[in-house]
């Protein structure tokens, strides 16, 4: 297949492109490569994808473009006909949305609108896009299920991702465009984002600095290794969404529809306390962390644990990487990449 991967220079998009090329697909990557975090890291990812494509003998094109530009998106879809679109490009970061919400409007709303409209016009067989566990917001019933309502987001980032889900449903309904939204739960691993906890903790500990531990380290997350996420994502992309014939408007299931639409959690169903996550990092680094215990951050939630039964039933999703192993792999990559 020929697959468009937006956000190709990003953490998950980079890994998805590598996996698709490795199994024999042709990939078109698209990314604006902004400076939200280290551009050199993004360029290194892109170089590795291109190198792997050459070794595999697969077609790989990279388009440096802003998806908020409708002309750039139209040109991308005019040049290529895609069998699948995997839309991962977005302005990331929960807390950054508290200080720069306009960038989320541009990337997450305008960019998404341009991509989904291009998919409609091109007759794309299936659009798979990134949502987030942050849409669950004020919900406190664990594990978090797609059948729960998600009408109380706590950050603007989450609100834009929830808007993407609603936009997708409208296109699935009026245009018949098959769409799958995946709510990611705390993805980590090699080549990860410098603004995420594992990266920041590793850097600080190697420099002998204290690490900020919010909520005294007692909150729980579905820490999910990136290879497991990529496996589930590609399986979901391969399986085109269909309508749910049992869907009932009198008791509407928010995760499906009579239209070819679905929203699925993707994460590790085994929740892990942040303190245990830090202990795995201490073991991998061979040194103890100096912990600065702090209250819960504004816009954060105490726990997010994923119910992934729907994704398992749909595509056989079974995350297999223990946190200790995944953290150790990240540390090995970090030491190698930065020469520490």
Count every beta strand, where a strand is a DSSP E run of 2 or more residues: 14
Secondary-structure element order, N to C: EHEHEHEHEHEEHEEEHEEHEEHH
Gap from first CA to last CA: 39 Å
Radius of gyration: 19 Å
Percentage of residues in helical conformation: 40-55%
Biggest sheet statistics: 7 strands, parallel
Quickly count the helices.
10
Q: Going across the major beta sheet, what is the strand order?
A: 3-2-1-4-5-6-11
- Described by its quaternary structure, the protein is single chain
Q: Catalogue the unreliable spans.
A: none
Question: How much strand?
Answer: 15-25%
> Which overall shape is indicated by the principal axes computed on the Cα atoms?
globular
Average per-residue pLDDT, rounded, comes to 96
Structural class: alpha/beta
Protein model, in words:
Helix 1 packs parallel to helix 2 (39-56), helix 1 (11-23) packs across helix 7 (226-238) and helix 4 (101-122) runs parallel beside helix 5. Helix 2 (39-56) links the parallel strand 2 and strand 3 (60-64). A seven-stranded parallel β-sheet has the order 3-2-1-4-5-6-11, with helices on both faces. The chain has a three-stranded mixed β-sheet with strand order 12-9-14. It has helices at 11-23, 39-56, 70-79, 101-122, 156-175, 197-206, 226-238, 274-285, 309-315, 323-338, and strands spanning 2-6, 26-31, 60-64, 84-87, 127-132, 179-184, 187-188, 211-214, 220-221, 224-225, 261-266, 272-273, 291-294, 303-304. By secondary structure, it is of the alpha/beta class.
């Amino acid at each position: 297949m020929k697959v468009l991967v937006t956000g190709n220079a990003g953490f998950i998009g980079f890994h998805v492109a590598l996996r698709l090329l490795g199994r024999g697909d042709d990939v078109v990557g698209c990314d604006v490569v902004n400076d939200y975090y280290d551009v050199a890291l993004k360029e290194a990812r892109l170089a590795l994808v291109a190198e792997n494509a050459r070794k595999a003998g697969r077609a790989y094109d990279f388009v440096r473009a802003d998806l908020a530009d409708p002309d750039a998106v139209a040109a991308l879809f005019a040049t290529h006909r895609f069998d699948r679109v995997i839309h991962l490009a977005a302005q990331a970061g929960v807390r950054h949305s508290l200080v720069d919400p306009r960038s989320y409007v541009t990337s997450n709303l305008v960019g998404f609108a341009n991509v989904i409209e291009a998919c409609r016009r091109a007759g794309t067989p299936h659009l798979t896009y990134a949502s987030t566990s942050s849409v669950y917001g004020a919900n406190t019933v664990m594990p978090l299920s797609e059948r729960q309502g998600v009408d109380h987001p706590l950050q603007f980032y989450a609100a834009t991702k929830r808007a993407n889900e609603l936009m997708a449903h409208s296109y699935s309904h009026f245009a018949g465009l098959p769409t799958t939204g995946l709510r990611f739960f705390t993805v980590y691993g090699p080549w990860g984002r410098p603004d995420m906890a594992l990266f920041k903790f590793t850097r600080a500990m190697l420099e002998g600095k204290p690490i900020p531990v919010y909520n005294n380290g007692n909150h729980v997350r579905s820490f999910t290794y990136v290879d497991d996420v990529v496996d589930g994502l590609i399986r979901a992309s391969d399986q085109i969404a269909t309508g749910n014939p049992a869907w009932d408007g009198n008791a509407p299931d928010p995760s499906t529809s009579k239209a070819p639409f679905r929203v699925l959690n993707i994460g590790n169903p085994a929740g892990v306390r942040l303190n245990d996550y830090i202990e795995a990092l201490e073991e991998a680094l061979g040194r103890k962390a100096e912990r600065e215990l702090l209250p819960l951050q504004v816009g954060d939630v105490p726990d997010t644990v994923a119910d992934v039964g729907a994704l398992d039933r749909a595509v056989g999703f079974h995350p297999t990487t223990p946190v200790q192993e995944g953290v150790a792999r990240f540390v090995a990559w970090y030491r190698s990449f930065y020469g520490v």
